[in-house]
Amino acid sequence: MSARPPTVRVAAGQGFWGDWLEAPQRQVTGGAIDYLMMDYLAEVTMSILQKQKSRDASLGYATDFVTQMERILPTVVERGIKVTANAGGVNPRACAAAVADVARKLGLAGKLKLGVVTGDDLLSRLDGLVARGHDLKNLDTGRPLRDVRDRVLSANAYLGAAPVVDALERGAQVVITGRVTDTGLTLGPLMHAFGWPRDAWDLIAAGTVAGHIIECGAQASGGNCLEDWEHIPDLANVGYPIVEAQPNGTFELIKHPRTGGRIDVAGVTEQLVYEMGDPREYITPDGIADFTTIELSQVGKDRVRVSGVRGKPATDKLKVSIAYFYGYKAVGTLVYAWPNALQKAQAADRVLRQRLADLGLKFDAILTEFVGATATHGALALQEIDAEAIPEVQLRMGVRAGDKKPVDRFTRELAPLILNGPPSVTGFAGGRPKPEEIVAYWPALIDRNVVEPKVEIVEA
Predict the structure, then answer these.
(1) 290 and 179 in a common domain
(2) Is residue 337 domain-resident?
(3) pTM to 2 decimals?
């Protein structure tokens, strides 16, 4: 067995599907790293990918990942950088096949092993699981899944770092997964590199915290940062964060030299509380991290040390992300100009609501926002501003219904307001809106022992 490294660097390359396309290339070429972590999946993303796969069996993964790999694979192979990504979505095998094709096209045949992690997709197993007593109750409402079973579009259990570790131990240089947790993409490389046992709960918690800090990319290195944001340098050249970890679980947050952005305690703290529930129990498939034990210290320019993290054993459950068809929605906008822009928009809202009611249309919800006046802070905003002085207001109205007909009629009632409603409409942004399908989220838990991760190795 080769000697364990004294430090390991895991770099964030993507924080979501749609993140900055330049980030992966900059991370693998800007300085020394050992791993590139690329996170693509959000809850609604799985249902989108499932719909793609239902139309074309060769799809169902984040196609941007393949494009990115075509760009960085020569550097990745040359420098021995390993990549972990949940870009596989609901079709990791097809994603791996596409990356293998790219590798061969680049002349890297025989030089690259791909690890493929599956087993998270429960869609085809749902009926059997429910029949065996797994109610998959909604964590927010307590309703059993059978209430919406006929409308389910996707169902994926959150896998942890274990299959990522397995793939790395079997020689994979690029690990492509389905619904592996964001944190598992960083924890897996650390467990593999340092040989951390799967029940070393403090170390597991430390690696989980490391993954949580960099899972959103540059949000931990100056992006979307509230603290003194006006003085964050050179965001156009922002450096994405890198975890520089030690075998004892202590790690430091850094970025490549000569990049913009900022890494400081305030920014790291903001990222730590992102999507936070009970800070004493940040639950993942790998274990539970106690965020109240985290110690942060600024140890240099753009260098924050994280230490003291404590953990607890993993639970016997896994979270399941289920998406189901909920109905239809449409959102339309009109812009009203000064003078009295807010009053005009409010009057248009009343007129449109009255017309919809007169037509006898039934909606599950109608929501109006006055962008430029109250959309962000509601009525509180009017306590701080002079409504008469607002130069323009965008009326943004959305409707939702189980049936498509009332939603479609709403889209036809908005445009007439330009000529038969309050004056001074300056823009019909985007034209007539179109009804869109609504995908709703159903979080649930399932017994860990019924989910079976699988790892395959594919040679490019």
Answers:
(1) yes
(2) yes
(3) 0.94
